[in-house]
Amino acid sequence: MQKDEKYTVYHGLLCPKETHSMDSFQYFEGFNMRDDDVIAVTYPKSGTIWMQEILPLILNGGDFTPVHTIPNWDRVPWLEETRAALVLNNKPSPRAMVSHMPYHLMPPTFFSSKAKVIYVARNPKDVLVSSFYFHQMASFLDDPGTFEEFFDKFLAGQVLFGKWTDHVKSWRKNNLGDRILYVTYEEMVKDLSGVLIRFSNFLGRELTEQTLEQVVSHCTFTTMKTNAMSNFSLIPRDIMDHEKSPFLRKGIVGDWKNHLSPDQEVKFNTVIKQEMADSDIQFPWDED
Ligand code: A3P
Fold first, then answer.
1. Would you say residue 5 lies in a domain?
2. DSSP-based three-state secondary structure for 10
């Protein structure tokens, strides 16, 4: 199948047709944001489904029912995807959702509301690797080709939702004040408990020590991998083939070291550094 058969192009961004449509974008643009909505924003492969697990538990004070009974795509839907219109209107507040959209494309009511945002960033080298395997297992994405080929496409931004650098920069230049919290995937891996406390404080929720421990334990990579409501095992194999690569693949920091050659590392760092030169964002992996 040709690439254009698999993707819808929205404001220059490649979005899979399997999950995005003109109707879903129309719903997105006219979305009626509520002041107590919470949105986790990510560039793809940066920890989106992790946030779909975490957010309901923080917002509902540690009630595990939704994470055990509702698939992640309906529990915390992608705002721009087809499921949003089917689930979000009827969801009681506070609603949690995720989005891969850049800041400037967010719907008008997002800007006029008080909805809160948690922006999760991940080392782009690990995003590249994670994405390469995702393309192998998801039949609704184009074949990534060799790692070398995919590497070039990633740096050129010819991938889902465009360039990583454009995405992270778009969410830093904003007028959101204290409505936005920044976190990295790496911080979540290193100290999930500490990050969950930051999330709870940001969202004005308090978890008891015991609940916090239970939530941390439920949201580990190994536990999530066995949760059928979160590991995409409910999706037919011809759409997602976990034999080729599981969606919850490794869940580690630094897998790029097993994939990039020294030359690729230099090239990658040079391009990202150049593109980030007009911003003052510091990431923990900048020195890697
Ligand atoms: P890997 O492919 O490196 O394993 P997204 O949800 O944005 O598509 O991101 C998917 C990536 O997040 C995958 O990375 C997946 O394994 C990782 N991930 C999901 N849940 C995780 C968890 N609980 N702990 C660590 N990594 C997790």
1. no
2. strand
Residue 30 C-alpha to ligand 1 middle, in angstroms?
A: 30
**The two structure tokens encoding residue 49:** 């489904």
280 found inside a domain: no
pLDDT of residue 1: 42
Dist. CA 111–CA 119, nearest whole Å: 16
What is the extent of the structural domain holding 45? 19-275
The domain tally of the chain equals 1
Ramachandran quadrant class, 45 (left: phi over 0; alpha: psi -120 to 50; beta: rest): left
Residue recorded with tokens 């990295």: 184
The DSSP bridge partners found for residue 42 are: 120
Three-state secondary structure along 40-65? EEECCCCCHHHHHHHHHHHHCCCCCH
Q: Is the CB of 192 under 6 A from ligand 1?
A: no
Strands laid side by side in the 96-99 sheet:
96-99, 38-42, 116-121, 180-184
pLDDT in tens, 221-264: 999 999 999 999 999 999 999 999 999 999 999 999 999 999 99
User: pTM value?
Assistant: 0.97
Give distance in angstroms: CA of 178 to centre of ligand 1: 27
Give domain status of residue 110, yes or no.
Answer: yes
Q: Residue 112, Cβ neighbours under 10 Å: how many?
A: 10
Contact (Cβ atoms closer than 8 angstroms) between residue 140 and residue 19: yes
Report the CATH number that the domain containing residue 218 is assigned in CATH. 3.40.50.300
What are 123's two structure tokens? 């080392």
HSE at residue 137, side-chain half, CA atoms within 13 A, is 20
Query: Chain centroid to CA 232: how far?
Result: 15
Q: Across-strand partners of 62?
A: none
> Measured from the CB, is residue 232 less than 6 Å from ligand 1?
no
